[in-house]
Amino acid sequence: MLTVNDLNVGYGQSRVIHDLSFLVANEEILAIMGRNGMGKTTLLKSLIGILPSKSGTIKLGDQELTGLSPHERVRAGIGFVPQGRMIFPSLTVRENILTGARGPIVTSVWDEIYAVFPVLLEMRNRKGGNLSGGQQQQLAIARALVSNPKVLVLDEPTEGIQPSIIKDIARALKEIRTLRKIAIVVSEQVVSFMMEVCDRVLVIERGRFVHEAARASLDDTKVKALLSV
């Protein structure tokens, strides 16, 4: 579904991502793990086009995304949930969700979103700024889903969220994958969440992948060691 080849990304003369190549299969949930400052957010921003790549290619199916603007990539099928959620605090839950749409949202999509995130139905007329951090994260995911993505990209979705809500988000992502038949790429530091939700993990260190494993064969002790160095 998503193919990245020899990707290089940086800021000014400084290179952060070094010749990264990876694939994301259809309906796969891929976790990209690493400590702060190792390149996770930079990589995801390059996938959505917020940060231009210096070289390399990014393809969604057969469509080349390199050179496209963020809104063009959304139109092509990339959905993005940013770190920190970035919902609109003065808008209601329903209005926040509408900001992610490319046209009218049909009733079945509303029903699907509220089935996955029932708390958003209860709070649909409440201001986004009055929601808890976990509720705002669910709102940010719902906003990305209404663009009908083929690949959903999430940056640190568990950051600042209590453990019980983290479990709800893991459940929701697996449910979304099943309902929508989409691929999901998630950057993360919480190993327990990653073990709950992903099919495969890549560990990034200073802009390069240093470990890869399917969840079934993953040595979580090694992953924890890489994250704590």
Account of the 3D structure:
With 229 residues, the chain is α/β, with parallel strands linked by helices. The chain has one domain: Rossmann fold (3-Layer(aba) Sandwich). It is built from nine helices and ten strands. It has helices spanning 40-48, 70-76, 93-98, 107-116, 118-122, 133-145, 163-180, 191-197, 220-228, and strands spanning 2-11, 14-24, 29-33, 53-60, 63-64, 78-81, 151-155, 183-188, 200-205, 208-214. The longest helix is centred in the last third of the chain and has 18 residues, at 163-180. 40% of the residues are buried. The mean pLDDT is 92.
List the helices and strands and how they pair.
Blueprint: E1 2-11, E2 14-24, E3 29-33, H1 40-48, E4 53-60, E5 63-64, H2 70-76, E6 78-81, H3 93-98, H4 107-116, H5 118-122, H6 133-145, E7 151-155, H7 163-180, E8 183-188, H8 191-197, E9 200-205, E10 208-214, H9 220-228
Parallel strand pairs: 3-8, 3-9, 6-7, 7-8
Antiparallel strand pairs: 1-2, 1-4, 4-5, 9-10
Helix pairs in contact: 7-8
Features of this protein?
four-stranded antiparallel sheet; 28% strand; Rossmann fold; globular; 229 residues
Sketch the major β-sheet.
6 strands, mixed
Mean of residue pLDDT values = 92
Describe the global form: globular
- Radius of gyration (CA) equals 17 Å
Summary of the model, kept short:
The chain has a single domain (2-228), classed as P-loop containing nucleotide triphosphate hydrolases (Rossmann fold, 3-Layer(aba) Sandwich). Helices cover 37% and strands 28% of the residues. It has helices at 40-48, 70-76, 93-98, 107-116, 118-122, 133-145, 163-180, 191-197, 220-228, and strands at residues 2-11, 14-24, 29-33, 53-60, 63-64, 78-81, 151-155, 183-188, 200-205, 208-214.
